[in-house]
Backbone:
């Protein structure tokens, strides 16, 4: 299924190809828990940025591998490059304009990231 998504103000728009029934993660790390992010990690080949490249602002912390991207106008983080899958894209399901048929949420222990990151590695592989 092809989903459309955007930030709050609409400056950043994208599409992502994913199943009709989504399996996503809710992470309890310091940034995700404050942002209310629901993680849909996909290969980069399944993601297309339609507009707003110039509106994006990046933020990195800790190891600097994850590149958190926010709309510079409204501050929403619709997607980013995750540390667990630097070869993929992590889309915030809350930013999808097209609603999935169903969403199954799995809790991810990002507070203990080093011990659990391997559980996400397969998500950015084409399959």
Residues:
């Amino acid at each position: 299924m092809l989903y459309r998504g955007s930030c709050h103000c609409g400056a950043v728009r994208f599409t992502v190809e994913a199943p009709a029934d989504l399996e996503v993660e809710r992470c309890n790390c310091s940034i995700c828990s404050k942002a209310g992010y629901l993680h849909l990690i996909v290969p980069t080949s399944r993601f297309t940025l339609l507009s707003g490249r110039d509106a994006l602002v990046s933020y990195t912390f800790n190891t600097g591998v994850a590149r958190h991207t926010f709309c510079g106008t409204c501050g929403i983080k619709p997607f980013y490059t995750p540390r667990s899958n630097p070869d993929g894209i992590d889309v915030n399901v809350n930013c999808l304009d097209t609603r999935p048929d169903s969403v199954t949420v799995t809790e991810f222990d990002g507070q203990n990231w080093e011990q659990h990151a391997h559980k996400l590695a397969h998500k950015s592989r084409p399959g």
User: Anything to note?
Assistant: The longest helix spans residues 30-35. Residues 31 and 118 are 19 Å apart (CA to CA). Residues 2-124 form a domain with the Metal Binding Protein, Guanine Nucleotide Exchange Factor; Chain A fold (CATH 2.170.150.70). The helical segments are 30-35, 113-116.
